[in-house]
Request: fold
Amino acid sequence: MAEKIQDRDRLAYILFFPYMTLFLLYVGFGYYYGVSAVLPNIMPSTRLLIALGVIVIVYFFARHTGHSLYEARQPGSRDRVTWLALFLILFVFSGCGFLASSMLIFEGPNVIREQTESMIGAWTDMNLIGKKALAVPEVEALERRVDEKQTRLLSEIATPFRKNFCGVGPKARDIITEIAQDIPGFAEISGTGQDHDCRKKEEINSIAQAYKDNIEKSLAALPIMAKSRIPERKRFLDELDIRTTAEIAKLSDLKTSLGGVAVYIGGIAQYQQAVRVLEEAASAYTVFYKNLCDLSGEPRMPGLPATVDITPSERIASIPDMPNNVVHRLDHPTTWIYLFFALTFDFLAAYAASAVVLIHRRSGYLYEQHAAGWHVGGPGSDVLSLWRPRENPISSNR
Reply:
């Protein structure tokens, strides 16, 4: 049993530095991008310095936790709690970076997909609700009546009368009278009587277009149109329809691009680009929502959010927001997996550090505390640092 323990300690000793290198790089990666989520305008070099500073702190506590764990493993040791306190401090620093990296690399695409679906739903709802909110039943009924009469008038103008003569005849004049009931003052246009050759298609089409333009202009000039802001409403709904189509297409492409393994391999730039797409869509949505409320005369639009919250995608890797992100995603199994691995990897780092102390002491290494910090010290030293043998190592029975 003792030999197995020694083999395990020896393996931990061998793997300590490679393991710590990878572990610290992963933690540093989380801090590097986690800082940018809080301070997006910060210089990359400053972010790098912050990440390196945290790496040093994590390494410091990993060593001291390992040393304390080594002391706790000794027979007759009375201090079996200190290592746990140091381990918790270690977890606070490294856990945030580890979780930030994990959230960014593995959860980031899922969060973006969720946010993309919400954004598509918001634009779709606004387009549908906007049409209903800006509809004026009285005006719509008027437009339907006029449109039906216009269709009959244009058809009658193109219908031959007395062999090959087209234009405004008796039936067309009756329709014009009907239109005048809805549009006061609407009358026959001079020179459009039924004496035009039907074979001259351009001439007939010109007459029909003149009546169509006149109906449109006269309809728009009605007092009810200005009172209800109909031109503005129609222009807004046209713009909303075009923008909704464009945003949904862009967001659908974004959602598709986040599928597969490629997004997890060097996909950080892609993730950041996805966040920018969501930010643009959210900003445009807010503008259209405000304009919709203004045109409808309502302070709030029932059934629609005033803004689309994309905070989860923007701050998924934010270090200050990490506790809140974890709490809000506790219903996701992957969150528990990340917490488990964060604790496990921290403990492995501390255990490997304790194995280094054990192996060095068994091998007769001496440790001495450097005045400035952390060089090798003596057999009873409480300091754990980069380990290196002295020129004349004194053998130890421990």
Notes: The chain has three domains: 2-108+322-362, 120-135+229-314, 137-227. The beta strands are 165-166, 196-197. The mean pLDDT is 79. Residues 120-135+229-314 form one domain.
